Amino acid sequence: MAFNHYLLVCGGTGCESSNADKIYTNLKSQAEAQGVAESCQIVKTGCFGFCEKGPIVKVLPEQNFYVGVKPEDVEEIIAEQIVKGRRIERLQYKEIGKAGAEKSAKGGIENIGFYQKQVRVVLRNCGFINPEDITEYIARDGYAALEKVLFEMKPSDVIDELKKSGLRGRGGAGFPTWRKWSFSADVKDVDQKFIVCNADEGDPGAYMDRSVLEGDPHSVLEAMAIAGYTVGADKGFIYIRAEYPLAINRLKIAIGQAKEVGLLGNKILGTEFSFDIEIRFGAGAFVCGEETALLASIEGERGMPRPRPPFPATNGLWGKPTVINNVETWANIPVIITKGGDWFANIGTATSKGTKVFALTGKINNSGLVEVPMGTPLRDIIYNIGGGIPNGRKFKAVQTGGPSGGVITADNIDVPIDFEHLQELGSIMGSGGMIVMDEDDCIVDVAKFYLEFTVEESCGKCAPCRIGGRKLYNLLDKISKGSGTMEDLEKIKSIGNAMKKASLCGLGQTAPNPALSSMHYFYDEYLSHIKDKTCPAGVCKDLVTYTIKEDKCIGCTLCARRCPVSCISGERKNPHFIDQDKCIKCGECFTVCKFDAVLRA
Amino acid sequence: MPVSTTEELKITDGLMEFVQEWKNKPGNLIMILHRTQQEYGFVPRKIAMDLAKVLDVPLAKIYGVITFYHFFKLEKPGKNQISVCMGTACYLKGAGDLIQEIENVIGIGVNQTTDDQEFSLESVRCVGCCGLAPVLTVNGEVYGKLKKDQIAEIVAKHRGA
């Protein structure tokens, strides 16, 4: 019997950790119990992207979009939606209109603001197919690109197609992909070449690659095989963070299934081309996202980068020519082959083609995974897709490029996001983390956070990064404690510029960016810390004092009861008092006071 | 597998099988260390010494790799591993306060284990569910959109469980 309903359950990490798995098994057993198991297909897919509202269940063909679903809602979903065909309004996603009124979104994700401005190329299959079933990938044109390449195209044709597409590496630097490939393809007289997928997504606050691998692992495998054919390699490695168990598991399943049906392994599709892929685990070193460090790690060594040139394209893994691309770059390749480079080049801007996936997180209403054409202004991403800043707070800045990037402020919110424009603004595209800050976030504190990260992750091989990073961190720490001087700001600039020029790899070269960029755009805030000894956002604990305004305090004793160090005293119904010597500045009293009687300064 | 002292440890059969399978593959060390940690929860000194013999690599090389990568542990973790995400999104949404609160509740700081071996605390870089920030995991189970006052309840749930 044919299915008349399809229930798609999001199985991304975000939803999975809020009981999506239980929802999936409950749906299965309820469908069985209510006698509709034969007429409705239940599929666990990859990430829908709308992580804020998870767990999500999508109903086809009605296109109902149920959010925040709980395992105990399942019985009703089957009984109402499947058996009786009625939409459950309680679960249906509601859009908050301009007047603040909620209204149920009409059927179809095209009516949901979060999706309206998105164009899904990389995430084309995420949230549509079951990633653990190769036939579903094949049904959506999966492996058609590999077939086309093997039977209709010469290696040089593939490189021409990539050149036409204008695809640039999505891992950070934006190097044209076709050039990398042609460097490796041009090396003759070697017995071995390698293809490597960089899935060591270490940028804190970014999870694009993870979602692609969890939702559509075959797209990466297919692309790697295409690269193998193009440059003449028969062996591929996927280097993935050990912290991503779900992605690792789905990759293993995918590789196994592809081998079983002859799309990987010996003599693929009956041709002379053979290609095999092996998974290698990272072990929690951010620097291994740098390509030469990554190769050292696959070789089983300490993950330290080495000087380039020679580039991995000619001297890579074990000295052999190696094509390294990151997950998102790989996921673009199969569509470029099936739909053509010209089609791809139509999306995006003059120099940055295609789309970019961003992990939109931080102080934003709709946090999640978004894919937009290159050149989309930040305003669209923050307000139309992201739904603005929560709790009526004011937008302050967005950090792109994680610890290697910089801030974009409200003044530049209409600048189109592409490789060149971000660089002009003193930031970088990076892998696609986009962290939104509001007025409660202190820019000095954020810069310090990133520097702490890069100091910890520096491999220590070259002095500019090892010593410079530590010095920068110490200066920022000093400023955040109110003992900074104007001279320190100059020092940050000169050390930062030296690191940019002299560091061995991308980690050290970009490590000063968060400090330099935030100093450029929020100079006043640095000045407040140095001259006025205040932290305008009230984050830097050494610069904050909490006092109780006698005229506003009604003596409800709430703050005194909540204070973890019992430093608030006072009689009931009389104004209270904070003992500044004992106060640890946790801010609990400020948060709990209902009468605005606690003053933070 | 309960063991009293690390001196008595031997390479288990499962680990040995894995080592034999990988022994002749180039670049095998990190994969073998992963498998070792999976077996014992950390990389015991005795096992590292045995591996050096089996693989015919200097012990210094093995320790060089272990100490370079954050993922590998040299000390036995507690029964329950609490990992607080300190990715940027979680940090901005108050992950630091969560760590502070855990310190208050179980009395240990980051990278420490309680005396009764019940809990260890670590801070990790991005669990990858930033939509749920701030996040912590206990033995891999994710708790998201956390508030400070939920910590005591989570600890109680895992204590002695």
What does this entry show, briefly?
The complex is a heterodimer of chains A (601) and B (161). Chain A has 601 residues and is α/β, with parallel strands linked by helices.
Structure in words:
The complex is a heterodimer of chains A (about 600) and B (about 160). With about 600 residues, chain A is an alpha/beta fold. Chain A starts with a strand and ends with a strand. In chain A, about 40% of the residues lie in helices and about 15% in strands. In chain A, α7 (about 155-165) packs antiparallel against α8 (about 175-185) and α17 (about 445-455) runs antiparallel to α21. Chain A has five domains: about 5-110, Glutaredoxin (3-Layer(aba) Sandwich), CATH 3.40.30; about 135-345, NADH-ubiquinone oxidoreductase 51kDa subunit (Rossmann fold), CATH 3.40.50.11540; about 355-440, Ubiquitin-like (UB roll); about 445-530, NADH-ubiquinone oxidoreductase 51kDa subunit, iron-sulphur binding domain (de novo design (two linked rop proteins)), CATH 1.20.1440; about 545-600, Alpha-Beta Plaits (2-Layer Sandwich), CATH 3.30.70. Chain A contains 24 helices and 19 strands. In chain A, the strands form six sheets. A five-stranded mixed sheet of chain A has the order 12-11-15-13-14. Chain A is globular, with a radius of gyration of 27 Å. Chain B is an alpha+beta fold. Chain B folds into two domains: about 5-70; about 80-160, Glutaredoxin, CATH 3.40.30.10. Chain B is about 40% helix and about 10% strand. Chain B is built from seven helices and five strands. In chain B, a hairpin with a 5-residue loop joins β2 (about 110-115) and β3. The two termini of chain B are about 15 Å apart. At the A-B interface, β11, β15 and α17 of A face α2, α4, α5 and α6 of B.
